[in-house]
Amino acid sequence: MIDLYYAPTPNGWKAAIMLEETGLDYRPILLKLSEGDQFAPDFLAISPNAKIPAIIDHDPGAGWGADPVSVFESGAILLYLADKSGQFAPPPEDRRGRKALNEWLFWQVGNQGPMGGQLSHFRNYAPEDERDYGFQRYRGEYDRNLRVLENRLEGRDYLLGDYSIADMLAFPWAFIAKPLGASLDDFPRVADWRARIKARPAVRRAIDLHKSEQNRGQHRVDNNTVLFNQSGASLGRGSADDS
């Protein structure tokens, strides 16, 4: 059994998609981020950055010892689960395949994810009179990352050729392009890739997990200091969702 500490956000979906795709037995544990569940000491012991997703694997298998294994950060989680299951990633001995996988994992968590997260903030949650500059800045960066995807998908159905954790990691931030005020009209290969992944039953199940708990703009800077403490003085405050 794997415990998935989760909220229905793009980054929460990443881990849920992988668990659904592999068929690994897991238990979703909903964290109510707007109420500060991510700052509970028990969760910080698992995810010291106070962000979701995180997992605890109670049966990690050979080589891990007898104790459960915890993993935080979405890229690390998907790589761990790929190695555990033997699915959706080139094996470690395929050095070229593994190199390409790592490039796209690091690209997503260092570029697409953070830029999409900032765009979401200025589109949906920032004070009305402070949105314009941030929105324009991060919309440009979001579109730049869409262009990176568009170029990579030339002649490929998926980022590595075959469907992999690289696609699972990048998909959620392309999936929500419209709510971010962006468009895929200029990125037809990305739009087709998005549609292929969205049609997968495991992906649909993951996106629907605790769907009713999504923040659809009801928690904003002006009414929720738990999620949006701009002072930076409290651990993890400002966002509870990883890259």
TrEMBL record:
Residues 1-89 form the GST N-terminal domain. Keywords: Transferase. Residues 94-218 form the GST C-terminal domain. One of its GO terms (molecular function) is transferase activity. The keyword Repressor does not apply. It holds the Pfam family GST_C. It comes from the Bacteria. Belongs to the GST superfamily. This is Glutathione S-transferase. It comes from Palleronia salina.
